[in-house]
Design goal:
Blueprint: H1 3-9, E1 14-21, E2 27-31, E3 34-35, H2 50-60, E4 65-71, E5 77-82, H3 101-109, E6 120-125, E7 133-137, E8 141-144, E9 151-156, E10 168-172, E11 178-181
Parallel strand pairs: 1-4
Antiparallel strand pairs: 1-2, 2-3, 4-5, 6-9, 7-8, 7-10, 10-11
């Protein structure tokens, strides 16, 4: 097996992704030093392409950590890591306890109640890089910005019952933009 094939199969190898922002806003992308180009006849990569590029590279290298270095026009380097999710183990479902014969009849006549639906609260913030990953804190989820740089999240309002201030934080993983407020 070649060294390159072993690297692709080894989950401990970190894949180096480098994105250099050009003066015109396009991105020059390399993966482990090799050029990573958009599809034939597609427009050049732009900042808004960032999440799509990272997703595509991650899909091509399943189970491997990506180190993403973004080199800004002014020379600043922003480094982020995309770590693959750990496989989840599911516990076996407990076997149902036997139901006495008398309860079978009473259960057949009872109506079942529906599970409680979440109460949703919305919070919106702006100033993010279009398409960037945005953390939602009390960190229960992540969302992504739209092409206009605005991030919107819907939160189960029951989570807010555990936060004395009832505040939510949106944190841009690329831009560093932070929006703090109370959802509607």
């Amino acid at each position: 097996m070649s060294k390159r094939a072993r690297a692709k199969a080894d989950a401990s190898v970190v894949v180096m992704v480098r994105m250099v922002v050009q003066d015109d806003g396009t991105l020059h992308v390399t993966v482990d030093g090799a050029p990573y180009l958009p599809a034939e006849f597609a427009p050049p990569w732009r900042r808004a392409s960032f999440p799509h590029i990272v997703d595509a590279i991650s899909d091509q290298r399943p189970g491997q950590t990506l180190r993403v270095d973004v080199v800004e026009v002014d020379g600043r380097v922003i480094t982020d890591y995309r770590v693959p999710p750990k496989p989840r183990r599911t516990a076996p479902a407990p076997a149902p306890a036997p139901v006495p014969a008398q309860q079978h009849l009473s259960q057949a006549t009872e109506t079942t109640s529906e599970p409680a639906r979440p109460r949703l609260a919305e919070f919106t913030g702006s100033g993010f890089v279009p398409g960037e990953d945005v953390a939602v804190a009390i960190v229960i989820a992540h969302t992504e910005t739209g092409p206009d740089g605005i991030s919107r999240t819907l939160i189960d309002a029951r989570y807010l019952d555990h936060a004395p201030t009832r505040e939510v934080i949106l944190l841009g993983r690329i831009s560093g933009t932070i929006c703090i407020g109370q959802p509607t």
